[in-house]
Amino acid sequence: MAGLAERARHVAGHRPTAAATPAAAVAARAYALNHPSEQARAALAAADALMGQLPEGERSDTWLTYGEQKHHVHLNHAFTTLADTRRANESQQRALVRMEGAAVTSPPT
User: Fold this and answer.
1) What torsion do the CA atoms of 43, 48, 50, 52 make, to the nearest 10 degrees?
2) Taking every pair of C-alpha atoms in the chain, what is the biggest distance, in angstroms?
3) In 10 A of CB 103, how many CB atoms?
4) Which of 2, 7, 67, 86 has its CA 20 to 30 A from that of 104?
5) What whole-number distance in Å separates Cα of residue 43 and Cα of residue 82?
6) What does the pLDDT look like over 15-61, one tens digit per residue?
7) How far apart are CA 98 and CA 47, in angstroms?
């Protein structure tokens, strides 16, 4: 699983794009699940650095972009798996704050 995630990172590149940023975050999750915590933490740092540089036009919450809420969901899972509960909680809270501002639609009653 981590090998496939790492290949996705390679294909997505290392520039801050809506493809490279989640590829790094998903790789962090894969590494965390396979217990190489140093690689997971390096991928987490890369994902955060890419997110910080991601152009505003690629930060919205669509199928083709990568919003902050999605980012923190990925980070939360990786930090939880690494037993870093403080950082997992921080990411969870940031995801929830982003979710509050999102448009939520319900089926008509």
Assistant:
1) -170
2) 50
3) 5
4) 86
5) 13
6) 999 999 999 999 999 999 998 899 999 999 999 999 999 999 999 88
7) 18
Rounded Cα–Cα distance for residues 102 and 6 (Å) = 30
Question: Which residues touch 59 (CB under 8 Å, ≥6 apart)?
Answer: 65, 66, 67, 68
Q: Which residue has the tokens 């190489």?
A: 36
Round to whole Å and give the CA distance between 30 and 26: 6
- Residue 95: CA atoms inside 13 Å, Cβ hemisphere, count? 16
DSSP string, 42-109: HHHHHHHHHHHHS-GGG-SSSTTS--HHHHHHHHHHHHHHTT-HHHHHHHHHHHHHHHHTS-------
- Are the CB atoms for 72 and 95 separated by under 8 Å? yes
DSSP-assigned letter for residue 14: S
